[in-house]
Amino acid sequence: MMTNVSERPGAAPGEEIGFVGLGVMGQPMALNLAKAGTRLVVWNRSPAAGDPLREAGATVAVSVEDVFERARIVILMLVNEMVLDEVLRRGTPDFAKLVSGHIVVSMGSNPPDYSRGLAADILAAGGRYVEAPVSGSRKPAEMGQLVALLGGDPEAVSEVRPLLAPMCRETILCGPVGNALLMKLTVNLYLCTMLAGLAEAAHFAESNGLDLKTFQAAIDSGPMASDLTRVKIPKLIAQDFSVQAATADAFNSTKLIAEAARAANMASPVLDLCSALYGESVELGNGRLDMVSVVKAIEVRTAALRRN
């Protein structure tokens, strides 16, 4: 009879690791783990997403319960807290059965207060919790170049941290649960406003009859050049809105940041304006397109101005 891995002390060499959530980010992250030789057991609500993982040598579980039965450490990359609660059966007696004796690692972006509450519930049920939101979009995820921000009990964090190496070029310790997600919101504040500014600059150049490839050369040769500009300017030039980081996700992120700003009794004027633009792009039907589609909201404002 197989011993439940939750009864084993410490991280055993070759121990199976669970991974739940194989979406835009989760699938390439899990693939990097599998390709690095991690014994992986995965599950996704849409079963077809598990096919590439099976081909890479991972075990595709029949249910989330199967993942927790086989793996003591389970990584979750889920879209929001509603799905996280649903997958973990939170609020039902099955929650404690699932998480007891496990380390649950959430790599998605959730409100810090939610994360603190989930950590308390998991601890009360006999498990441990680490938040590990990542900075980066699909392309860095595919290349194993994400940055993970870690929050939680130091012992649990130290156990989880080495497992993230195939997915992340760097892991940054942020302190207790809640702090890593606050840091992720801080990073996203810069990202979302920076990208909206980049889209507006490209729109400004095009509206003034400038060649966008020349605009790209000017940016690439100056102090504003970054991995973001090198990836996103070509997408703006080609009007390529294939998703790396979705507009709806960017909009949701700006709303989380605004909530955290209000909780800290601080102003966020640049963020608030950019949030409105991402929201307008979502209303235009661009929610599942790449976040560079924020340029479409700017174009609509320009068209309205010209009509008037």
Summarize the topology:
Elements: E1 17-20, H1 26-35, E2 40-43, H2 51-55, E3 59-60, H3 64-70, E4 73-76, H4 81-87, H5 93-99, E5 103-106, H6 112-124, E6 128-131, E7 134-135, H7 138-143, E8 146-152, H8 154-160, E9 168-173, H9 179-207, H10 212-220, H11 227-238, H12 247-263, H13 269-286, H14 294-307
Parallel strand pairs: 1-2, 1-4, 2-3, 4-5, 5-6, 8-9
Antiparallel strand pairs: 6-8, 7-8
Helix pairs in contact: 9-11, 9-12, 9-13, 9-14, 10-11, 12-13, 13-14
Q: What's a quick, concise take on this entry?
A:
About 50% of the residues lie in helices and about 10% in strands. The chain has about 300 residues and is of the alpha/beta class. This is NAD(P)-dependent oxidoreductase.
Features of the shown structure:
12% strand, NAD binding, 52% helix, 6-PGluconate_DH-like_C_sf, 308 residues, single chain, EC 1.1.-.-, alpha/beta, HIBADH-related_NP60_sf, NADP binding, nine-stranded mixed β-sheet
